Structures are given as structure tokens and as C-alpha cells.
Amino acid sequence: MKKNAGDICFFAGLALAFVIQAVCGDFPEEVFAFPVNAAVLFFFIVLLVVLHREKPSSALCRYLASARTSLILFVCLALSCLILGLFSQTGGDLLGFRHVKYSWWFVYLMTAFMANILMVLITRPFRLRFLLNHLGLFLALVGSFAGSPDKSSVKMKLTTDPTADMYLTDFRVEYSPNGVPSDFHAEIVVDSKNASLKVNHPYPRTPFVDIYLLDYDKASQKPAYCIVELVKQPWKYVVWTGVVMMMCGAALLFIQGVNKERRTV
Fold this sequence. Notes:
Strand order of the largest sheet: 1-7-6-5
Helix content: 40-55%
Shape: elongated
Number of helices: 7
Largest sheet: 4 strands, antiparallel
């Protein structure tokens, strides 16, 4: 498969994904909840490994492992993320596609990008920093993309009613010098335990469920309720592992680069 032929096939697949999106609507993400997503991911990895072992010099293997393919996918995904950021926040409609991240073309791009990263990992010589960066990126993508069907969230209004399973015991608001609220804290009881909530500082109810503080009763001097969100993220540790690996890989790349420069002086 020549470079141009490979690009033509790639963009033809992308065009087909747009057509499927226009005809069928959003990608059925809920169908791929656990354990389906785990099974698909396993067979996806096995398929690429077998393909490389059986036909390492095939046109498909070479195209998936090429730097050109990585660049094309990176640009396409960067544009897609830009579209996602612009339209998901405003509730806008793009060519009839309300949920960019659940669209067939975004799923196609993410799948191709993961295939590209995995094939690069398989075909390149082993280096620790290379492994940390690429495997970390692969795990981060897997946790956020393949794990997306398992993520769920529920918003709740907590009052001071002590008969509820989760209730508010105290709420404090901090104000800036001009009188505008700058921060707020909530003391709650959940599962018979006292917990403190602060903006961007969730309380881990379980290893996979976090409670986030969203809003509060602004009509009263002493807030009578607050709004919290329970977020379930079963794959979050996969994402964290990937992020930590990339940070270690970046640090190792910097250290080895500095040492290399010192040796050449």
C-alpha cells in the first residue's frame, strides 16, 4: 500500500463514518459497556499483534506504524477535540451531530489512533522512555475512550435532613473583597461518615465513585442545601496509570537529553 493509497483508504473510511453518522445517528455507546468493551479491546490488541507477527512487512502494518499516519491522525483528532470543545459546551448542533464524542467519525479516528500507537509499540525497538510515553498514551486513551460507556454521573440536592442517606451539616462561603463569592465548602454525612467537599476537591466515596460539589443555595445567607454530583469512573486508574507513565517518560527524556548534551561538550 503506497502512501497515497493508504491515505485514500483512511479518508474513505472517515467519509464512510460520516455517512453512517448521517444515516444512523450517534454511535451506540451503551452497547459497549463492560464487559463488551473489555472483550473488544482484548481482541483488538490480539488482532494487531497477530497481524504483525504473521505479516510484519504488509502494507497495512507499514501504514499503521508510519510517522505520517501518526501526524494525520493527530491533526484530525486535534480538530475533532476543538469541535467537541466548541459545540458540547454550547449545546450546539454540527451537521446534525449533537454529541461529537459519540459520533461514528470520532470513534473511527480514536480507534485508528489507538491502532497506530499500538503498532508503533510493536514494531519499534525497546527503549524505556519510548515505552513509557507510547504505552502511557495508549492506556490513557483506552481508559478515557474504551471506558467511556462505563462512566456515569448523578446530580443530587443535599439538605440538612438527617434522615437521608446523604445530608448537609454545614456550609461556608468565602467572599472576595468586592463581595463576590470566591470559594465554598460543604460538610456532609455520607455512609455514616463525615466528609468535606470543596470545588475541584471531590470526596472519594468508593475507589471508583467520587462526590463533587457543584452549587449551593444562593438565595439564603445561610445556604439550606447544596448540589453535588456522584461520578462513577471504573477506568480512571487506567487513565491515571497512563498519565503517570507519560510523565515519567517525559522526565526520562529530559534527563537523558541533558546527559547527552553534557557528554558532547
